[in-house]
């Protein structure tokens, strides 16, 4: 009789040890997941608060300077809820699917790209655009993407 209760006691203690180790592992996993979700929510919050709107009129003829040096000029307004960095290394520009590196940014109505302010983005192309065809300019700022289509 004593051997049965001893074996039950050993099995009970072993099951408690296994349950405690499993609970510890789950607790660590949940803490790591919670930390990762917290970090990601800060990033998403920053992306959500960043928003721009391209306000250039593609029909005005002011987007592409065909008679001059062939620059593309786009006006972008900060319509988000936070100030943005008005520098060319913070803004990604694609023209007709090609990444552009010769980009300059100037704030139009102030000294900083605050909420409601406009920047002029000038893209110096290495070669002129095809005439009588459609073109696309894609501007990416903090994950927010805007596209402007125009015709030369």
Structure commentary:
Keywords: Cell projection, Cilium, Flagellum. This protein is of the alpha+beta class. It folds into 2 domains: 1-49; 52-151, Immunoglobulin-like, CATH 2.60.40. The chain has one helix at residues 2-49; strands spanning 52-54, 72-78, 91-95, 98-100, 103-107, 118-123, 134-141, 144-151. The strands form 2 sheets. A 4-stranded antiparallel beta sheet has the order 1-2-6-5, with no helix packed on it. It has a 4-stranded antiparallel beta sheet with strand order 4-3-7-8, with no helix packed on it. The N and C termini lie far apart (97 Å). The mean pLDDT is 85.
Short description:
This is Flagellar protein G. The protein has 152 residues and is of the alpha+beta class.
Topology overview:
Blueprint: H1 2-49, E1 52-54, E2 72-78, E3 91-95, E4 98-100, E5 103-107, E6 118-123, E7 134-141, E8 144-151
User: Number of DSSP helices?
Assistant: 1
**Cα-atom radius of gyration:** 29 Å
- What is the CATH top level name of the largest domain? Mainly Beta
- Unreliable segments (pLDDT under 50, ≥5 consecutive)? none
Which sequence of SSEs, written as H and E, runs from N to C? HEEEEEEEE
The N- to C-terminal Cα distance equals 97 Å
**What composes the largest sheet?**
4 strands, antiparallel
- The helix content, as a percent range, equals 25-40%
Query: Beta-sheet strand percentage?
Result: 25-35%
Mean pLDDT: 85
Q: Can you tell me the overall shape?
A: elongated
Quantity of strands, as a count: 8
CATH fold annotation of the largest domain: Immunoglobulin-like
CATH architecture of the largest domain: Sandwich
Give the count of structural domains.
Answer: 2
Pfam family, one: Flagellin_arch-type
Keywords: Cell projection, Cilium, Flagellum
Protein name: Flagellar protein G
